[in-house]
Amino acid sequence: MTRAIVDLDAIGHNTTVLTGAAGRAQVMAVVKANGFGHGSVPVARAALAHGASWLGVTSLREAMELRGAGIGAPILMWLYAPDDVLDEALLADVDISVSSARALEALGRTAGRLGRAAAVHLKADTGLSRAGATAADWPHLLTVAGKMQAAGLITVRGLWSHLATAEDPADPGLHRQLLDFGHARAEAAAAGFTGPLIHLANSAAALQLPQARFDLVRPGIALYGVEPIPGRSFGLRPAMTLESTVILTKRVAPGAGVSYGHDHVVERETTLALVPAGYADGVPRRVTGRAEVTVHGVRRPIVGRVAMDQVVVDVGDLPVSAGDRVVLFGAGGPSVDEWAAWADTNPHEILTGIGGRVPRCYRGRSAGKTISTRSPSRPEECALMAPS
Ligand SMILES: *Cc1c(COP(=O)(O)O)cnc(C)c1O
């Protein structure tokens, strides 16, 4: 059946590449969205064992999953609504990103009620126009933060922003963001915030922009072994292999229609192999007519529409039979980048789209010590498959 083999040694190797590139900056392993689909807890443990010292997540729920697994490393979470109840974050020592005075004041009330200061990272919007305070709102945010820190309600532990075009060092917008981040830092320093950690860089910036590294870098996609900069290689190793099993084969005559709508009609006699992986498992519906998988070491096309639970592969005259292994992507198969191109998307969407019902099976030296809390896999699902 379909499963995702996650090589934790690759996560470790990629972390080592990133800590090497980061120089004196610390590394925050971004393990949001269930570790980009790989399993946040095992990925976090592997990254921390190889030199990462911070973890980055989107939501409180994701942060609490890490704490619940006994991970004590510093964690930053960055998306919530100002009325969300964040008591758990304060009690579990989870740092919180703050983009507005309103959110800061709400946190201050929580801190006052709990008798416990909130650790915050003030976020500046330097040109992405998502989270963060604009240049116009930044001074007010600093003023409110200064008062609340003096009152013991918050500790400002970080000053940060996020880049829009880090893959392209020639992009003028990138240089404008670096300049605007400089202004935001200068204003913060003038307001008395001289100690907080400064951080800006995602994977691409961590690897190619020394001037964006500051105190801490926040790689996501590179950690999982996808090269973040088109045309450049940093020796990263893909961590995930998505594999499945042929569950039925049949010989069909010319004229046979394949899958819903009969978008594909067989032109010459061939063997069709049924593979139990569909869009609920992360095979995007829009790859129809483009995607290939590897079976018996040979690339063969997915034919007809991708269904929720299954696809059909035209294996031609290869001697494929039920039980044979199929690689959708990863070691011995197409790359995640190829899937992203077939689906007109980025590798991030392919990896985070792997469905919740797909077991994650861990390999590598640290795998034995690892338990995924999100999708605990039964041992038989993760037994080694005979290569076909
Ligand atoms: C997702 C995310 C990252 C990681 O980005 P990559 O491009 O995957 O390295 C870093 N910082 C923030 C704020 C993010 O949301």
Automatic annotation (TrEMBL):
User: In which residues is substrate bound?
Assistant: 130, 308
Q: Where is this region: Disordered?
A: 367-388
**N6-(pyridoxal phosphate)lysine: residues bearing it:** 32
Q: What class of enzyme is it?
A: isomerase
- Name the cofactor(s): pyridoxal 5'-phosphate
Q: Which CDD domains match?
A: PLPDE_III_AR
One matching Pfam family: Ala_racemase_N
Asked whether the UniProt record includes Chaperone among its keywords, one would answer: no
**InterPro entries the record matches:** Ala_racemase, Ala_racemase/Decarboxylase_C, Ala_racemase_C, Ala_racemase_N, PLP-binding_barrel
**Superkingdom of this protein's organism:** Bacteria
Tell me the pathway.
Amino-acid biosynthesis; D-alanine biosynthesis; D-alanine from L-alanine: step 1/1
| Catalytic reaction annotation | L-alanine = D-alanine
Q: Which SUPFAM superfamilies match?
A: Alanine racemase C-terminal domain-like (SSF50621), PLP-binding barrel (SSF51419)
Keywords, ordered alphabetically: Isomerase, Pyridoxal phosphate
Q: Which family does it belong to?
A: Belongs to the alanine racemase family.
Q: What is this protein called?
A: Alanine racemase
Q: Which organism was this protein described from? A: Actinoplanes palleronii
